[in-house]
Amino acid sequence: MDFTYNEEQRMLTDSLRRLVSDNWALAKRRERAQQQGLDQAAWQSLADLGVCGLLIPEQYEGYGESPATLVAVQFELGRGLVSEPVIPSAVICTTLLLNSSNEPLKTEILPLMASGSLVCAVAYLELDQRNEVGAATSSAVANPGGFTLDGAKKLVWLGASADQLIVSTVLDNETALFLVPADATGVVIQDFPTMDRYRCASISLNSVSVPQQALIARGQLADDALATALDYGVAALCAHAAGAMERLVEITAEYLKTRRQFGRPLAEFQVLQHRLADMLLHKELAVSMAYVAATALSASNADERRGLLSSAKVSVAQAGRFVGQNAVQLHGGMGMTDELEVGDYFKRLTFTDYLLGDTDFHLQRLEQLFDRAN
After folding, report:
1. HEC string for the chain
2. What CATH number is associated with residue 208?
3. Is 2 part of a structural domain of the chain?
4. Are both 134 and 65 inside the same structural domain?
5. pLDDT tens readout for residues 125-140
């Protein structure tokens, strides 16, 4: 896979960097993070650049771009700490729907998602789960008009911003995925902020009725669609974190050039130069592993794909922690205050470890894959 930007990718990333610089500056970003629900203007500005329809094929009025373009776009969004539901909706839910066999639902929903007029979120984690994917207690029961859903989901990434929820349930002892309107009778959404200035939601389903056409997939097809969607989410998250690291290294270098001690800029002290160089090396490692994650998406073998993605996720999380911690330290006491945006980047990079499977989960998966291969 060639990761050298072509002319279209350069134009897209240049436009996206200008948009992010204008609309996701510190004050605007923090103000948006305090709001419940979706900022329609901000979301539409991303949709107008093609971000929402990036992975959607042209037959569904999208752009059908490759994982290489996904990395380029997420890198720019990470630089600006964009917290709109690009990964939950435009990456994870889009991929899940594309890997389902419900053609009428795809024809109806995907064009709306590509235009930015509809946002989805996937609800799969249950109250006693940490990294598991399969539903345990949420249930679906068939009835003459469709299905009745009951259960509870936690940590639904930007769930309160969604118009539609993709919910995992157990139907006749197998996984079933349903598309549920967020405002359906019996759906209760409790929105809350997270420390890294994202937002999550807890969702309860109390005898929620959905029609038969709301069934996205069931059985092995549902398991595979959800797993593939989360794999795409991991790749996007790695690129997002790599972009955040690049910007944080730039912020730290600018601070060292302007902050003076003993009559000299801090950037002239050799020990600090070495520390900044180490941050740069870790950032470059993260960028390389983001490319590895994108390459993995094209692997036909599921074990190979997941092995590469887990390796990338672990490496990027470790690099992010190193870059974030050192940026705070190099800013001295100012790095601990809310005055500077360095803390925002530190928190986002720290919590990268916990999104879509933490380091322990991915190391265990790598161990299992290694044992299986030997």
Report:
1. CCCCCCHHHHHHHHHHHHHHHHHCCHHHHHHHHCCCCCCHHHHHHHHHCCCCCCCCCHHHCCCCCCHHHHHHHHHHHHHCCCCCCHHHHHHHHHHHHHCCCCHHHHHHHHHHHHHCCCCEEEECCCCCCCCCCCCCCCEEEEECCEEEEEEEEEEEECHHHCCEEEEEEEECCEEEEEEEECCCCCEEEEEEECCCCCEEEEEEEEEEEEEHHHEEEECHHHHHHHHHHHHHHHHHHHHHHHHHHHHHHHHHHHHHHHCEECCEEHHHCHHHHHHHHHHHHHHHHHHHHHHHHHHHCCCCCHHHHHHHHHHHHHHHHHHHHHHHHHHHHHCHHHHHCCCCCHHHHHHHHHHHCCCCCCHHHHHHHHHHHHHHHC
2. 2.40.110.10
3. no
4. no
5. 998 888 778 777 899 9
